[in-house]
Amino acid sequence: MPTSSVPVSFGGRRDTGSFCDAGIVVSWNQPEVIAARQIIIQMAKGILSGSVSPVQGARTIARRRFTARLEDDPDILPFVGIASETEALPLGRERVHWQAQALADLQDKIDESQAWALTVASAHCQSLVARSGSLMCWPEG
Length: 141
Fold this sequence. Notes:
By secondary structure, the protein is mainly alpha-helical.
């Protein structure tokens, strides 16, 4: 897989494409970083349009943050909180493993959590979408 050794800057951090920590060299895979960022931006757009559940979108964004090299980004961190606060709620494919009555019993909590997540996430989704051009650039040295 191709990696970049060109100096890059993400979120004000300058990077050479790899770093050495305790003798371990880690390279950043440009296509992997860009693909993760594309998914994050797609999720943000989907949350804003209503086509993606705010909680499920937050879970996806939180999972992709390290690959996207956005783990400390102030617009990403709220999604980590949403994912953490709602991790016990069955959404998406995991619902097939739940009994119908248990799902029905949780539905009010799920709806409440979705509304809360949208309130927390909206401004950060807007910011991510507004920044999408710069987030998708891999600056050349």
